[in-house]
Description:
Radius of gyration of chain B: 14 Å
Radius of gyration of chain A: 50 Å
Distance between the termini of chain A: 103 Å
Mean pLDDT of chain A: 87
Order of helices and strands of chain B: EHEHEHEHEH
Low-confidence stretches of chain A: 507-511
CATH topology of chain B: Rossmann fold
Structural class of chain A: alpha+beta
Oligomer: heterodimer
Strand order of the largest sheet of chain A: 2-1-5-4-3
Amino acid sequence: MRTPDYLQAELLDLAVADATLFNFLHGTVLDGLWYWDLQAPENGWVNSKLWLTLGHDAQHLPPEPNAWQAALLPADFATMQQVVAAKAADAACHTFSQVLRFHRLDGSEVWMDCRALLLRNEAGTATRLVGALLNITREVEKEAYAVEIANHYSTILSNQSVYIIKTDAAGNYTYVNDLFYERFGYDAQIIGTSSLNSIIEEDRPKCLDVVAQCFVEPEVPHQVILRKPYNNGPVKSNHWEFKGLVDEQGQVTEILCVGYDVTLLTENLQKSQHLLEVTKQQNLRLQNFAYIISHNIRSHSANLTSLAKLLDGNGNADQKAIFLQMLNTSTAKLAETIANLNDIVTINTQGAIAKEPRLLKEEIIKTLDALNVQIRQHQIRVEVDVPADLLVPVVPAYLDSILLNLLSNAVKYRATERPAFIRLYTYQEPGFIVLAVQDNGLGIDLNRNRNKVFGMYKTFHNNDDARGMGLFISKNQVEAMQGRIEIESQTDVGSTFKVFFSTNVDVDLYS
Amino acid sequence: MLTYIVEDDPVAAYLAELMIRKEQFCSEVQSYVNGQRAFDSLKEANETGGALPDVILLDLNMPLMDGWDFLDAFDSLAIAKDVCVFVVTSSIRPDDIEKTTHYKHVRGFFSKPIDEKALKRMQHLLEVPNN
């Protein structure tokens, strides 16, 4: 058996004998051949294959001797000169490679990998360079495209407004994008830990429910809003889309979670809901008020209609005189009703009225002074346990009216069979200063009357000058100052009215 | 036939009584200025075997004991006689009209003032057997 060595010897002989092999190599295998005189660098020769690679027609190759240099990009020619100078200085260096760009005839660039061979003379000086050129334009473009794609996706993944998370089937983090780290103050240490930990406790069952759905129905997004503390600061609401990802066996192995911040949205929603609630309350009050107005005015108008009819009919003069007197009474009552209604409308429609700080004790003493005669006359003991420096933000006219109403009621409905007393004291509740007005008077049976105490035209004792307006007006005034009024009472034991003054100075209901 | 007028407004009570007499709706009328007075009288009559009313014209908004309190208290008195209550009010609150239907003694809801037409309707309702 002959060894292949004869082939090597044969090929070497062929290379020396004639140009067939050399022509095949540079004319067919390579994309260009360059032979350069390093001692006269303006002189160079390129083969016709290079021109074909650069888009020239075989019949019309450039005739100018320096056309090769014009085809090379000037910057790359300069670089090549520097590289060659460096390599030539290194006596041990014979070959190297360098990427060069050429102008194609159509104006585009052709990237060539130049494998260079330095030919040296006896003194070791590099005198010639043989450059074997390979067209690598396609590879360069492919690589550039791949880089572009990678950049594109990495931009999407590190997007400034979307969180992207992956967990394993047990809910431990396997991937987290930069935004998530950044916003929630985590680092790569959370990978492998439970994703539940970052969610506020009360939202965890909700999260687990959605994860369970991902197992039941994989590859479909399931949505949920979860709250997480933001960098240990305020809690943020995020809208998430969870998706169970399945492996080849159809098992859910990962959960992909994509989320974005909806805090502002949820806060606005809550604000709207609050506003809706306020509006609903106002609407209810308005409707109630409309019924009260219609009832009160209608009852007088009914009387007037009947009386007018009777006066118009047959009847004796005595009877008519009675009707006329009744007509007078009815019109006077109608005028009074309208005046009462006007008081209420004024309180309810003034909207935001300026509150001012007032010394509560001072105002109480002023009101007691005004009632001084009756208090002395009925020997009522009065105690005022209110700090002298306690300030309450109030509409001053309303405070005057509320104090006068509660204290004059306490005097009017005082105990008659035991020594009467009135005690005023204050205490604090979150958002409120509470003033209690306690008496040991007649009291009101709250089992029967709880819903009516603060109603319009409600009276609870046989008292002819009671109009049933006082507590109704007080309630409206307290509510107009964002407070409330409550009562504790027992018949023949006494009543305690508690006025809750809102410490909120701002009177705007919508804030 | 005896009618109670339970009404706190003296003008309205007077006018209702006048209309009842004029239309000869019944032979006797008793007026009460609030639910408490009417209830006390009813209770006493029931206990002592006195005259019980056939018809009660009941206002809703009254001091001390209002119309609703009266109806609740009335239910608690086991009165053998079939007493017919007509609610007479200026209220046009839909809740009020609806609420009266829950009281078995109430057979009608009337707007003030009581006129001939209203009394005719009451007469008609009295003739219809109460289910």
